[in-house]
Structure formats: structure tokens, C-alpha cells
Amino acid sequence: MSRLPELAERIDRLLLRHEELARTNTLLEEQLQAMTAERDSLKSRLGAARARIDALLDRLPVEKAAPGADE
Description:
This protein is mostly helical. Helices cover 80% and strands 0% of the residues.
């Protein structure tokens, strides 16, 4: 019967560890959601910036190459 208190103590430690891991997991999930939202926002901003650059490039005059310029 001396093993019963040891077993109870070990179970208590395991429960505490489980609670700590559950809290850590919740915090990590929140951080992941924040990072995902930030990534999506940055991707959207990048797409908008690319569209603006493409529009500016389309407005540039097209230069005709002089004969023999490729050589």
C-alpha cells in the first residue's frame, strides 16, 4: 500500500503537466491564428502593390529598338 501515495502524487503531476500543455497549446493556436492573419494581409498588400506596379508599367511608352541593337 506504500505505492498508492506515490501513484497518487505521480497522477497529480501528470494532471498538472497536462494542464500546462493545454494552456501552451491554446497560446500557440492563438499565435498561429495571428500569424496566419498577418500573412494573409501581407499577401493581399503584395498583390495590390504588384497590380499598381503593373498598371504603372503599362503606362510607360514602348521604345522601338534600333536596327542592330540586339547584336
